[in-house]
Amino acid sequence: MADSRQIYGLDMAIHHQPLGFSYGEDVTGPMPEIRHLNDIRASLRDPDCEGPEDVYAIAMDVARMQDREELNKRMLLFGVVTYAAGRLGEEPVRSQGHIHRISQHSGWSPPELYEIWQGKAIIYMQEYVDDDPGRCFAVIAGPGEKVLVPPGWGHATISADPNTPLTFGAWCDREYGFEYEAVRAHKGLAWYPLLQGNNIIWQHNSSYIPGRLQVVTARNYPEFGITEAPVYQQFIDDPARFQFISRPEKAAELWQNFHP
Question: Quick check: helix, strand or coil at residue 48?
Fold first, then answer.
């Protein structure tokens, strides 16, 4: 698995039958949790849809063994997720919409930094999970591209290509937690992604005030010091680089009027 270091910054492999991961000799990680279709029906446009029973596998806290102490000290955690190919009825394979629970150590709902490894992704995000969702964005990203979700925003990760499984890594707060109640109360996020052939179109969720969806491509984030290198390798090179994930107050000015 040595070649994966250049791609991901970690010596690991992704598997799809069954969904999961294997780790190199110097990498540790948990057995992946499998999210089944029944687990996410409440956040889908059609809760009765058909699709793969195992929708995605998620492994939180993947790391090189020599990085464990530093990650704990900095309250950082690296997660890896891989999706099944296919579709969920008329929708693409996707995660449940959620917001991040407020971390006790920071008092903030933490941001999250995604890096796409395989497939094509759309990171959908909205400012609020309230009747007025505020600004809404769909960020299109391919392998090697990064997407930053700011603190407190509702979001979901969508596979934009039903023929290719999506895999991504993400930097998270070590006290990560997902809150689903507000999203489920609104029958999902403010915009539903739908597959038309192999293309994504968008349908507004009538549980929210009508608004505008901005579809954009992934960008670089030089204001946060992020480079084009694999995000785990960036941590190896500079362990302080992603402190704004677990301590978002350090970037408080950058979150104001943030544009993904």
Answer: coil
Q: Hey, which bits of 84-206 come out as E strands? A: 87-88, 91-92, 99-100, 112-118, 121-126, 136-141, 146-149, 154-159, 167-173, 178-179, 191-196, 199-204
80, 173 in Cβ contact below 8 A? no
3-state SS class at 108: coil
Q: Position of tokens 């507004």?
A: 204
Per-residue pLDDT reduced to its tens digit, 19-39 = 999 999 999 999 999 999 998
Q: Is the pTM of this model over 0.90?
A: yes
Side-chain half-sphere exposure of 222, counting CA atoms within 13 A: 0
Place of tokens 């890896």: 80
Which of 202, 197, 226 lies closest to 213 in space, CA to CA?
A: 202
* Residue of 120, 130, 121, 141 whose CA lies nearest to 99: 130
Structure tokens at 208: 């929210």
193 pairs with which residues across the strands? 202
Q: Are strands 87-88 and 12-16 parallel, antiparallel or unpaired?
A: unpaired
Among 213, 238, 219, 253, smallest CA distance to 141 is for: 219
Q: What share of the chain is helix, strand, coil (3-state, %, to 5)?
A: 20, 35, 45
Peptide bond before residue 18 is cis, with ω within 30 degrees of 0: yes
Distance between CA atoms of residues 23 and 1, nearest Å? 8
Report yes or no: 203 and 126 within 8 Å, Cβ to Cβ: no
The pLDDT tens digits for 165-212 are 999 999 999 999 999 899 989 989 999 999 998 899 999 999 999 999
